[in-house]
């Protein structure tokens, strides 16, 4: 995404002569338009919550709602315009169309009245379609990587299903045959439990998990992690609960949040030593959780979690410029998670 951002910014400047512009992607679940690429606009403008609605959401919201380009010759005379660039006088916004469906908006502003022409609009529309295709291709690559990993695990589970079932049958037969032999019963029961754990692990892998690896049995609590307060924010129950459980086994005092609003509320009301947050959750994205953490406690490190390197809200790039402690790319191993957590809390990586 960083490479794509650089190319979009360069071509928008060199070909279209846009010095102040943004690309926002449409979140179809919330109808919110999230900034993914920007040049020459303030953080306040980029952080504005804009929705794909005809009224009350500026020119960008209107374009996303209607799917039609909008050429504004003078912002002072336009009821749709929302304040953006300081001293802005004119604006141009075009939809990002993929198969005739709006997936986002490219909008530009200028300090000159009538800075954009109909020719600019036509070129921007073509450029917008190219951006839409590029972003879609990026997402397809991420999905393909995810699906391929899951298919390999699914094939392995299918191949091992028969042999594992035979082991279970034999172990249970031994238990039934020697009901009074404690040694045989205990050892056979251990085999049964071990096989069940393997089957569960294979089943989870075939469902394309975000966390790989066996959680080690803790004989003692990690002195670096013990007593630390860590917030785990993720809208996927299995991921959130697995991370929290694993950290708890190492002596961590965990709190969990199932969406961005809940995470920000906890950050503002409680004190944490570390925040782990997924970049794409309902209500708030990863950067917004990061920003809320920095505002509440500038010394609290934040680790962002993303699926296969795809960062639709540009959270990682933005947060990295402001002191992000680390990034975890799904699927990640248990050891990698613990390594990143220890590193963020001040210990050298294992």
Topology:
Elements: H1 2-14, E1 21-27, E2 32-39, H2 43-46, E3 50-51, H3 58-66, E4 70-72, E5 90-98, E6 101-110, H4 118-177, H5 182-206, E7 211-212, E8 229-233, H6 237-249, E9 253-257, H7 260-269, E10 274-278, H8 286-296, E11 302-307, H9 315-320, E12 326-330, E13 332-333, H10 334-344
Parallel strand pairs: 7-13, 8-9, 8-10, 10-11, 11-12
Antiparallel strand pairs: 1-2, 1-6, 2-3, 4-5, 5-6
Helix pairs in contact: 4-5, 7-8
- Structural class assignment: alpha/beta
What is the helix content? Answer: 40-55%
User: What ranges have pLDDT less than 50 throughout 5 or more consecutive residues?
Assistant: none
* CATH homologous superfamily annotation of the largest domain: GAF domain
CATH architect. name of the largest domain: 2-Layer Sandwich
H/E element sequence: HEEHEHEEEHHEEHEHEHEHEEH
CATH class of the largest domain: Alpha Beta
Total number of strands: 13
What is the count of helical runs? Answer: 10
> pLDDT average, as an integer?
82
Whole-number tally of structural domains: 3
Strand content: 15-25%
- The Rg value, from CA coordinates, equals 26 Å
How would a crystallographer describe the biggest sheet?
6 strands, antiparallel
CATH topology of the largest domain: Beta-Lactamase
Distance between the termini: 29 Å
Shape: elongated
Strand order of the largest sheet: 3-2-1-6-5-4
């Amino acid at each position: 995404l960083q490479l794509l951002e650089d190319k979009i910014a360069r071509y928008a400047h060199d070909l279209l002569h846009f010095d102040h512009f943004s690309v926002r992607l449409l979140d179809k679940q919330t109808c919110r338009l999230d900034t993914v690429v920007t040049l020459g606009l303030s953080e306040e403008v980029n952080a504005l919550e804009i929705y794909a609605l005809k009224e009350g959401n500026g020119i960008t919201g209107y374009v996303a709602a209607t799917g039609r380009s909008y050429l504004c010759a003078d912002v002072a005379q336009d009821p749709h315009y929302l304040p953006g660039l300081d001293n802005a006088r004119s604006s141009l916004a075009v939809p990002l169309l993929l198969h005739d469906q709006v997936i986002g908006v490219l909008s530009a502003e200028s300090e000159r009245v009538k800075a954009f022409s109909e020719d600019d609009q036509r070129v921007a529309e073509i450029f917008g379609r190219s951006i839409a295709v590029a972003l879609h291709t990026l997402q397809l690559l991420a999905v393909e990587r995810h699906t391929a990993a899951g298919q390999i695990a699914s094939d392995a589970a299918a191949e091992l299903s028969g042999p594992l079932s035979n082991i279970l049958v034999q172990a249970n037969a031994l238990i039934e045959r020697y009901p009074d032999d404690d040694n045989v019963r205990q050892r056979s029961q251990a085999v049964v439990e071990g096989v069940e754990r393997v089957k569960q692990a294979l089943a989870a892998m075939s469902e394309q998990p975000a966390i790989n690896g066996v959680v080690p049995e803790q004989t003692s609590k990690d002195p670096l992690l013990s007593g630390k307060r860590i917030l785990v924010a993720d809208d996927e129950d299995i991921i959130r609960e697995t991370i929290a459980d694993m950290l708890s086994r190492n002596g961590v005092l965990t709190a969990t949040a199932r969406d961005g609003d809940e995470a920000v509320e906890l950050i503002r009301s409680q004190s944490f030593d570390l925040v782990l947050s997924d970049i794409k959750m309902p209500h708030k994205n990863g950067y917004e959780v990061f920003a809320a953490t920095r505002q509440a406690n500038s010394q609290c490190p934040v680790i962002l979690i993303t699926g296969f390197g795809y960062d639709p809200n540009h959270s990682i790039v933005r947060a990295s410029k402001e002191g992000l402690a680390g990034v975890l790319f799904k699927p990640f191993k248990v050891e990698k998670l613990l390594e990143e957590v220890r590193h963020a809390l001040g210990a050298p990586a294992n």
